[in-house]
Amino acid sequence: MRFSFDSAVFLKILVFSGVVVGCGDRHPTNLSDQPDRMPSQPAPARDAPAGMVWIPGEEFRMGTDEEQAYASEKPAHAVRVDGFWMDATEVTNADFTRFVKATRYVTVAERKPTWDELREQLPPDTPRVPDSQLVAGSLVFSPPTQPVNLDDYSQWWTFTAGADWQHPAGAGSSIRGLENHPVVHIAYADALAYATWAGKRLPTEAEWELAARGGLRAKRFAWGDEQTPGGKHLANTFQGHFPEKNTGDDGFIATAPVKQFAPNGYGAYDLIGNVWEWTTDWYDANGFQKQKASVIQTNPIGPAQSFDPQEPFSKKRVTKGGSFLCSDTYCVNYRPSARQGTAHDSGASHIGFRCVKSGGN
User: How far apart are CA 72 and CA 69, in angstroms?
Assistant: First the structure.
């Protein structure tokens, strides 16, 4: 959700917002003896839409059974997804600029929030925020200068008045020189508006996870079982000690231009790391546990409503892929099965998106 500029109000709202979630250190485990690669399927007999790659329809195991994964990822369950087209990259600042120039669209972060909007996702007894404290803005990653309590997100997230897609660090900043970086500070409604304008749609969680696996089966990472095979970084994540020291061993300390790392087996770039990406599914923390193991779901679209016992008043969509802030000293959300719930009306400096199109022969 959007936030007031008052720091005390911000801290209270942040607890219930679902914009950022805590997680712990994770370690790889062996998942399965199934064949390493899913069977391939040819693309439709027509030209590929510009800038998109074909994701062949497959049956696969969505989620994971690995012991050290987060509970919301479990258990792995059988899913079948029809083939579709996906943007090869995240939507960039240049892409979003063309959209805004054509439509004059104003993003959620650029609009002054109202108390009625805020209170929909807050406990009933939350004190009213004075209208004078409600300003347009978004959450910006602001690394501390020393180690901090990792249970306190406010140590590295700052609500910044004037922060939005055109001003990623707040008023006075710009996207000049960042045209080929993923657009950030994007709420779900913003991503949906762009997709509609582009004649596309947003992916379901199942579509996104199938694409992120790149044709590999039962692998912890999108490229195999090792995080940095041969010492090589294959995604834009956080190296060093989170959140105060990013050594930038992968070449970046914030967002990276798209296509800086090798594509996966389907030709898609940066599905892991760089920025979290929106999907259309409502987030249910217990959703996978409700699936019947004997039933293969075909083109699942997720639950009918959001549910997160840790933030019961927040309406969340699933975001996937992790970001440049995912660190093995704090979390390991740079995996295809990893998922988090993000308040649908919130953006931040690590949230972007890409689009898909339905396909067929």
Answer: 8
Pairing of strands 339-343, 157-161: unpaired
The reported pTM is 0.90
Give strand pairing partners of 161.
137
Residue 206 has phi, psi (to 5 degrees) of -65, -45
The rounded radius of gyration (Å) of the Cα atoms in the chain is: 19
Q: Do you know the residue count of the chain?
A: 361
Question: What are the pLDDT digits (tens) for 74-119?
Answer: 999 999 999 999 999 999 999 999 999 999 999 999 999 999 988 8
- Asked if 87 and 191 touch (Cβ cutoff 8 Å), the reply is no
Beta carbons of 109 and 165 less than 8 angstroms apart: yes
Tokens 């109202």 -> residue: 114
Yes or no: say if 79 and 63 are a contact pair by the CB < 8 Å rule. no
Q: Tell me the residue type at 12.
A: K
Per the rule left: phi > 0, alpha: psi between -120 and 50, beta: everything else, 224 is left
Fold of 1-361: paralog of FGE (formylglycine-generating enzyme) (3.90.1580)
Q: What is the pLDDT of residues 307-348, one digit of tens each?
A: 999 999 999 999 999 999 999 988 889 999 999 999 999 999
Residue 316 near residue 18 (C-beta atoms within 8 A): yes
Asked if 288 contacts 302 with a C-beta cutoff of 8 angstroms, the reply is no
Burial class (CB in 10 A: 0-12, 13-18, 19+), 30: exposed
